[in-house]
Every structure is written in C-alpha cells, then in structure tokens.
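User:
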Amino acid sequence: MGTFALYLLVTVVKILWTVKDVNAAGAFTPQDCSLECLRQGVPGCEYCRITQGDIQKAFGSKVVKTLGSCIPWPCFELIGNEDPDICQHYIHSPNNVTVETMEDPEPTSDSVVVSWRPSPYGIAFLRGFQVSLQVLGGSSVFCQLFLFHRNRSLPASHAQEVYKSDPFRGLSLGSQYAVTVMALPVPEQWDRFYRSTTFSTRSCAEKNGMNKCKQDWYPQHVNVVQNGTTAAVTFNLAPQSLGIRSYFSVCYINDIKKQTNKVDITPNLSTNKTHHTYELQDLQEGTNYTCEIAADVVDAVRKIFTIHVEHKEPYSTSLLALLLPLALALTAIIIVVVAAFTLTKAKMKWLKLHIVPDSDILKEHQESKTQGDMLTWPRTRASPPRLLICYSTSDGPAHVMAVMKLGAFIQQHMATQVCLDLWDSLSVAQEGNLAWHSRQIQECDFVLVMCSPGLSHRPVTTELNENPEDEESSWERDNSSAEAAICLIGAEVGRAKSRGQDLSKYMAAIFAYSAETDIPTELSLVSHYTLTSDLPLLFSHLHGVSLHRPGGYLKISHISEEGFTQLPAGAALLDAICEAAEVMKAKRSTCATLNV
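Assistant: Predicted structure:
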C-alpha cells in the first residue's frame, strides 16, 4: 500500500513538471529577486533582474559611477565568488535578436522591449544575459543585467524559448540605436558571445500623427487659380493645437535656386480657421515657377507646387493682321528653298574635293554629344567600406562631439560603415584601448585620423593638481590611446612605404578650426583633407571613383559643400564644428593672455 502511494506521488510530480514546461513555452520575462537569492540558489530565483543597488553593493559606488549598469565580467564578480568554475565555460551568442515597440504615454519619446533566443551551444552552462542600448552618434549607454540562479542548468530544448528584457523607456523619437545582447559567462579570448543589431524609433508623425507634430506638419492641399500674371493660392491651415500662426511661401524660376517671390503669410483665423488664400503678383509671362509653402517654424517640411504662366499674344481681327503672317511665312519658305538648293550644289562640289571619312564624323559627333554629361556613381562594392576614425580627446568635449557628428554623417549619407571607439565601448572595455585600435587598424578598409592641436601638443595647466591620479586621468588616460594609435598608424605607413605598397588606406583630416601644422609628421605621406569643404574628395577616396574626367563630372548633391547642410545630420555636423571652433578660439585667447 505504501509503495502504491509513493508511485502516485511520483506520477503527480511528473505531471506538474510537464505542465510547468508547457507553461514555460511562452516568453521569459525578468523577475524581481535579490542577488543574495541568486547566490544561494533559491528555487524561486530563476531569471532575475540585477538592479543598480545590487551592482553598487557588489562593486562599490565608484565603479557604478564609471560603468553604470554595464559590467564587463558580471558572472565572475556577482555569482562566481563561491564557485569560480561556474563562469569558465564558452557560451555562444544569442539568436533572433528582435526589437518590439511598446505603447508609451509620453508623446515625445518611445519605448522598446528586446527579445532573443539562447544558442544551443553551451546552453547547459548559461548563467544570464546583459542587454545594452546605445544611440548612434552618442556616448550614453543603457544596460540591463539578468542572471539565472547558480544551480540552474538549461537543456538543449530551451534554445527555442524566448527571453525578454525590461522595457527601455524614454528613447528619443526619430533616432537610431544599436542594441547588443551578451550571453554570460564570457571567458577571455572569446569573440562569439554577443549579438548586435540596429533599429530606429518611430518618428513623431508615425507615433502621434502629423497633425500633432509641429515640425512634421505641412499643407497637404494646395490649389492654384491663375489670372494672367497673378495667381491665387489656397492651402489648408495647421490645427490650432500646434500653435502655428504664420507661414511663408517662396518661388523659383525654372528650378533655379534663386529666390524671386517670397510672401510672409499671417492668416486671419477669425475669418476662416481651416483654409487661407494669398496672391502671387507680377509673375513673368512664359515662365515656369517652382514654389514652396510651409509653416514659419524651424526645419518645417515644405509643400512644393508648380505654376506655369503662358505667354499671350494680342489678338486682332483685322484682315491685314491675318494675311501678313501668311505672306511672311510664304516668303520665308521660298527663301529657304532657294538657299537650300544653292547650298546643296555648292556642298556637292566641295565634297568631291574634300572627302571626310565616316569614322571621323561619327567620332566627332560622339565627342560633342558626351561633352558635359554627368557621370553616374558605379556601385561595384558588395558591401560598404569600413572606416576607422581616430582622434584626440585633449581638445575637449566640443571637439569629440564634432568627430562623433562627422562619423554619424559619413555612416548615414556616404555609404560607409564607421568604426568609432565611443560606439563600441563594450569591446573597448573588454579588449583594452590599444588592442581594440590595433585590431581595427588591421580589419578596416580605411583609417582616418582627425588631427587637432591636442593630438601632438599636451595642454599646459596653470594650476597644480592636488591629486596625481586626477592629473593622469585629465590627459594621459584620454589621449594615450590616440597617441598609441598614431604610433601604430605611423609604423604601418612607414612599413608600406618601404615596401612600395599603396598608402591610400590611411588619411589625415582637420576641421576648419585646426591648421595643417596640427597633422603629425608620421602622416605627412598620406592624403590630407579639410572638412567639410573636402567631403566630395573624401567620398571619392573611400569609394575609388573619379569626380572629374574629360567631358564629365560626378555630382552627389548631399555631400557637396553647399548641399550637406540640407540634411539633418549635416546641419548637426556644422553646428558641432562651429561650437568647437568657438571653444578653440576662447582657449587660444586664454593662452595668449596667460603668456602675456
């Protein structure tokens, strides 16, 4: 009887365990459990979120301030103290990393949740995940850390399970982010432990609708009624909730970007709150106009419409007015026939004396036809070239921001994959600054050194620093990696020159606030550029295309010196360069005052 009762108890336990496995088929979401619960292996602590308090308790406030919630080796420090063997196994990177948008009550931000599947390779030794989110073109990183309890061992079947992160809230609308999911533990010299992907948050218009976004709104309905050289234009007004009270309209002649008619528009909302009509006067006859209308706000979207003004001849009903054109036309025809007959006879006589080969005529025709043709960009590469950007941090945050904005512009609008240490802080922390730069120099197709005064000149401090460690961190720690990278690049350039190899992989560039003398001697043999005026030359260097050839030229409007500011990334780059120039000017004034 006792044996039968024991058999029933075991059967019930198996059934409950099977039901638990079936329920586990859904997505795993993090639990609220303490770090002490994980270390003790309590059964209720299966997939736990690690908070800032847990990290501060384990590492101290100084490390938390430096690293935030991103810990380079979380398994060893958090759950490997009691049993170091737990964190000694290789775990492959997760699979199927996806980003899902969540409903966010804030109209100016977005929220996302990251999900993934664990790899079946090494899953029995999996101890958790770390998820990091970084905005492209910025340096801030948001991290979430999730750990399993130390006694849990996942079977291979769990590779089909989906794990989810906590929501990442407060993300800027219309921005690009990079998300990285890292499997724990991470032994040394192992590069297959993480999976990264990029995504974009929704625009304001996508989330809230165009009628709730001031910069995205534009007149959708424009009606033009012409009366001679005057045109009446009617358009729909913006919703009153956007607070737009004024508009403007500009017109150009025959698509030439020379403003001819500008009208400032301030509708009277007491008369009509939905539509407004204004007039364009003194239009030229026989002219095509391209016009734009938009709200009078910064970076407003413009609605384009066209106007064609016909040339009207005065109408006369007199018989003379009708017969005179016919007589003139008949006379002209007779003159043309006689002239053609005379010229034909003269040409036949001349051809007998001067016979021109057909091949020469065809060649001359082809040369005249292709004169001034615009070349097209031959897209021959299977993948975009990789560009490593090296720079100095000694010139302050404004210079670093200008470099980051340059990298973002090149990656978005010049068909190039940019490698920047601030965008890959996790790998830099794992490999070390010098090792990371050395690997990128070997793997990247091109290396661009942004030269500035701080790259070769150490700043002179006017006061003694009481803390030697702070003095070390103020320059040597920030600029040592740049100097080491320059030494590595200089050695590679010298080695390639001695072997007679191509030096096109390496480039040096300065912003307008720097000088040619800021370029180190090691880089005197490579190509030099001044940005942003040489953006077309840099594009030509990266993609190996010629900007000019006899009878043709290559034009890409959004990277020209006049056109790149029309893009949001180009405008941000120009603002960052101007701000850095002001900082440099103030710094030089201060140094001149101190020298006096």
